Amino acid sequence: MSQDLFEELHELLIPKISKCTTNWRTPISTRERLVICLRYLATGDSHQTIAFSFRVGRLTVGGIVKEVCTEIWNTLQPEYMPSPTEETWKQSEKGYRETWNFPNCVGSVDGKHVSIKCPKNSGSEYFCYKKFFSVVLLAIVDPCYKFTVIDVGSYGRHSDSGIFENSIFYRQYIHGKSLLPDKPLPGTEEPVPHVLIGDEGFALKTYLMRPFPRALATQDERKTNFNKRLCRTCRVVENTFGILAQKWRIFLRPIDCDVDTAIDIIKAACCLHNYLRTKQGTAILTPESEDENVPMRALITHRPTNRRSTTAAFETREQFVSYFNQ
């Protein structure tokens, strides 16, 4: 974050995080409060380390982080992560078609486990299959590595499909509706639904494409080609999570806060990610410049699901298979 962007962010937050000066004490300045929060998100240091660095109390740091993260979300979300509109989906589809060669795709979706300290009296609710405690960050990403929609706070033991189908986004935009009207793929005449794309953690739906199982793909070159095209495009959401974790290194270690504060931290980091991507105009990695062998260790993906799908979903995927093998 450059100094100019910091000053701009500070100006936006001054009315929300300022405190009154009283006869008893002079409050911590708004600039220092914002710096403490950003330092915590960017380094992942403990509250005690931050307290030593700024000569304030450990509990003071905890209160500042929670308050400032909440106000960052309230201030930046309406502008940098607004509720998607039809125009949002159209711009996303254009980007995926022109940059990633996947027409009729309006977003890449994935869920990641964010490691947290074991919550009190939570039993096994937050205990995920990777043997640590986590909350789930489920995100839909546009072709420019910016978050379009996020869902934060689901139990770590839940699957991607279950979280997605119980999210507010699903009820508002998917259930009984369509993201955009059907349209033919380039060079064809038969209308095809607009879709999201995901990995094996999601069930195949008419609105969500997933790759073929590896055992089937190895026996059919057409399915292999489809898997290559889809998995290459799925790298958009993987890259976005990687950029998020490298800029905000709080994700490289378990978040030592209560669950509500951890959710506020994740939401604030996602908003700051969109804010910086929008302001800095960072270049997009093209498919040709991708390094397929770089693992992303900060955020852990979900395990695959084997839920059965409808005939309509299989037919929609077969239309994409035919298009990619023309």
UniProtKB/TrEMBL annotation:
TM spans, by residue?
none
Where the record annotates domain DDE Tnp4, the positions are: 109-274
Compartment(s):
Nucleus
Q: Give the domain of life.
A: Eukaryota
Instruction: Give yes or no: UniProt keyword rRNA processing.
Output: no
Q: Which residues form a coiled coil?
A: none
- What keywords were assigned to this record? Hydrolase, Metal-binding, Nuclease, Nucleus
Q: Kindly list the cofactors needed.
A: a divalent metal cation
Molecular functions per Gene Ontology: hydrolase activity; metal ion binding; nuclease activity
Which GO CC annotations does the UniProt entry carry?
nucleus
Pfam hit, one? DDE_Tnp_4
* Family to which this protein belongs: Belongs to the HARBI1 family.
Checking PANTHER family in the record gives: NUCLEASE HARBI1-LIKE PROTEIN, PTHR22930
Stated name of the protein: DDE Tnp4 domain-containing protein
* Organism expressing this protein natively: Parnassius mnemosyne (clouded apollo)
